[in-house]
Amino acid sequence: MPALTPVLLEDAFVALEPLTPDHAPALEAAAADGEVWKLWFASTPAPGEMGAYIAKALEGHAAGLMLPFAVREKSSGEIVGTTRFYNYVDDPRRVAIGYTWYAKRWQKSHLNTACKRLLLQYAFETLGCVAVEFHTDHRNLDSQRAIERLGARREGVLRQHKRRPDGTLRDTVCFSVIDSEWPDVSRWLALRLERLAG
């Protein structure tokens, strides 16, 4: 089973840096842009909770289940959010992409497409995954549409699957991309990124 070793993933638009405690101040500032922790369906930590959020992500990495990243937008050089691989299993080898949030000014920009293209490429071409999963709250319609725009297919809904930050139970909508679909998805994401960033 290949280890989820910290790695820098980057292209012309974004750098996904291995998450460290040193990213906490910049991530606090990113979360403050739009107060994104107030979104009831989001996993964004509230003010003062970023250190614990990072520590928990790094515990997941130490257990071999997660690989968390800080997202640096290349044109500004700023840390603008975070994302990660999680739920990594070896047989059949698959992983989920999630825990993704961005400063408000970068939402609905080219940034998410760039990040997901890098993550999917690493999952399929380096980790050798047969499938990559995406999960989102059934009430988060923006997230569902964003995942569908990546070329992922909706698989179904896990009812009363997990707790939201406010303690209520959520239904989780599941999507995936499989290895045989990756060449077409890769071409689609390249075209989409060229259009969005152009």
TrEMBL record:
Report the Gene3D superfamilies cross-referenced here: 3.40.630.30
**SUPFAM superfamilies, per this entry?**
Acyl-CoA N-acyltransferases (Nat)
A Pfam family hit: Acetyltransf_3
Highest taxon of the lineage: Bacteria
User: InterPro entries, alphabetically?
Assistant: Acyl_CoA_acyltransferase, GNAT_dom
Q: Where is the N-acetyltransferase domain?
A: 14-174
Q: In its UniProt entry, what is this protein called?
A: RimJ/RimL family protein N-acetyltransferase
